[in-house]
Amino acid sequence: MTTLSIALIIVSAVILLLFMVLKLKVSAFISLLIIAIYVGILTGMPLSAITGSIQEGMASTLGFVATVVGLGAIFGQMLESSGGAESLAHYLIKKFGKDRAPWAMVFTGFLVGIPVFFDVGFIILVPIVYALSRDTKRSLLYYAIPLLAGLAVTHSFIPPTPGPVAVADIIDAQLGWVILLGFILGLPTAIIAGPVFGKYISKKIHLEPPFGLDEPQQEFDSKNYPSFRSIVIIISIPLTLILLNTFTTVAVSKEFIRQSIWTEIVEFIGHPFSALIIATLIATYFLCLK
């Protein structure tokens, strides 16, 4: 590659970076990652080497964890700012009914805890717990324990939250397997620690909603919030891409399928960096710009 072509790639990368940040209002962090991928492709780097180069440029393990957590935080912020968490909660409560609201809360916490940090998800959703407790006169624990169980399980078991991401990188485990096993082990754990235990402990301890926080809330208007379907699809995008990458990598290593440009593309877009960039851009467009 000539010096002139390299110079043109650099100039075009700078122009594209400025356009994305200033005109399209894309986060500078995401824009820089996209530009790094853009430059890597134009300079002829193998797709698998591009994400590795980004990670090494940000200090290996720290770079991997920081990049995934950073992208995950931005992705979660889109869900938080758009009202997606509340939309999930109200939809599930409507479908389950107030008699089965603890099940709605554990599934809400389980889904919301994937992109949104535990404390943020709790702050967003706890008013719904207060309202349910006030309306049904049941112990606050009847609804709070399932919500906390759902949030805690996915926050601890399923990326892109920091804990499972760091552990996966330290023990050199693929995030796809971490996600898959996190679901398999996490869902029954959340159910036992949530609705099952919550029903038991709420009969032993009766807690009222905190004073001053149990007034009727503003009526929920689904027209002002993203739909349940769109939120679930957006949350599933990075998980699906990462799992697809894992299965493709295993299939190639076991020689079930042959290595080709298509498997390289699948592995590239399924890398946690690429998957979260794609999901964040989709979330930004459909949740915050439309």
Contiguous uncertain segments of 5+ residues: none
SSE series: HHHHHHHHHHHHH
> How far from one another are the termini?
42 Å
Structural class determined from secondary elements: mainly alpha
- Beta strand count: 0
Strand residues, percent? under 5%
Instruction: Report the mean per-residue pLDDT as an integer.
Output: 85
Count of discrete alpha- or pi-helical segments spanning 4 or more residues: 13
What's the overall geometry? elongated
The helix fraction, in percent, is over 70%
Overall radius of gyration: 22 Å
Main beta-sheet strand count, sense and barrel state: none
Number of domains: 1
Structural commentary:
This protein is an all-alpha fold and 290 residues long. The protein has one domain (46-289). The protein is built from 13 helices and no strands. α6 (101-112) runs antiparallel to α7, α7 (118-136) runs antiparallel to α8 (141-157) and α11 packs antiparallel against α13. The longest helix is centred in the middle third of the chain and has 30 residues, at 175-204.
Quick rundown:
The protein has helices at 3-23, 28-42, 47-57, 60-82, 84-96, 101-112, 118-136, 141-157, 162-170, 175-204, 228-253, 261-269, 272-289. The protein is an all-alpha fold and 290 residues long.
